[in-house]
Amino acid sequence: MPVLISRDESVLLVIDIQEKLLPDIPGGEALLLRVSLLLEAAKVTGVPVLLTEHAPQGLGPTVGPIRAELLPGTEPIIKTTFSCVYEPNFLIRLKATDRRQVVIAGIWTHVCVTQTALELVRGGWSVFLAADATGSPRPADRDVALERLRQAGIVVT
């Protein structure tokens, strides 16, 4: 039986939509619009949001439209590992939501998004990937990652 995303059981995870990463993503502006729509929907429905930044000292902060307009005051989870799960502060904040479904948007689909999704499934969470809100510098890398994630039981939507 298909699993549905539940407003009361889900958290939105936005991975590494950063100033120095986004310009390298084909269709980056469209991806940013899709992420913005997800953030607006989360706000309206009361779904908690977790935001990560990978090594922001070198890759810059989260892009301005998200940081300033959609998530003002939200403290990003800083990470230096590809998988968010290996950052202890991430797991503390995720577990504090007391939710078992994670909806993921972010970049680089084939690295940080994939590794995080696979580790979350291994940890017992149900994972949903917003395909149109993810990207990689090479579209082929993104496509291969999406197929790998489908095969691993992640719902690509």
Structural overview:
- The chain is an alpha/beta fold and 157 residues long.
- Strands 3-2-1-4-5-6 form a 6-stranded parallel β-sheet.
- The chain has helices spanning 28-45, 56-59, 64-70, 88-96, 109-122, 139-151; strands at 10-15, 49-54, 77-79, 101-107, 126-135, 155-156.
- The protein is globular.
Proportion in helices: 40-55%
Beta-strand fraction estimate = 15-25%
Sheet having the most strands: 6 strands, parallel
Output the helix-strand order: EHEHHEHEHEHE
What Rg is obtained from the alpha carbons, in whole angstroms? 14 Å
Main sheet strand line-up: 3-2-1-4-5-6
Unreliable stretches, pLDDT < 50, 5 or more residues?
A: none
Structural class: alpha/beta
Mean pLDDT value: 94
Short description, anyone?
This protein has 157 residues and is of the alpha/beta class.
Furnish the topology, listing elements before pairings.
Blueprint lengths: L9 E6 L12 H18 L3 E6 L1 H4 L4 H7 L6 E3 L8 H9 L4 E7 L1 H14 L3 E10 L3 H13 L3 E2 L1
Parallel strand pairs: 1-2, 1-4, 2-3, 4-5, 5-6
